[in-house]
Amino acid sequence: MMVVSLRFRGSNCLRQRIILSLLTAKSVIIDDIRSDDNEGLREHERSLLELIKTITSGTNIQISRTRLQINPGTIIGGEISYNCHVERSISYYLEVLLCLAPFCKKPLKATLKGVTNDQIDPDLDSIKASSLPLLKRFMGDVEGTKLDLKILARGFKPEGGGSVLFTCPVVRQLQPVQLTESGKIKRVRGVAVAARVSPQMGNRLIDTSKGLLLRFLPDVYIYSDHTKGKTSGLSPGFSLSLSAETTEGCILTAGAVSNSKGSSGGPTIPEDLAKEATYALYEEIERGGCVDSINQSLALTLMAFNQKDVSIVRFGPLTTYTIHYLRHLKEFCGLTFKLDSCDGGEVVATCAGIGYRNLSKPTY
Question: What is the pTM of this model?
Answer without folding.
Answer: 0.94
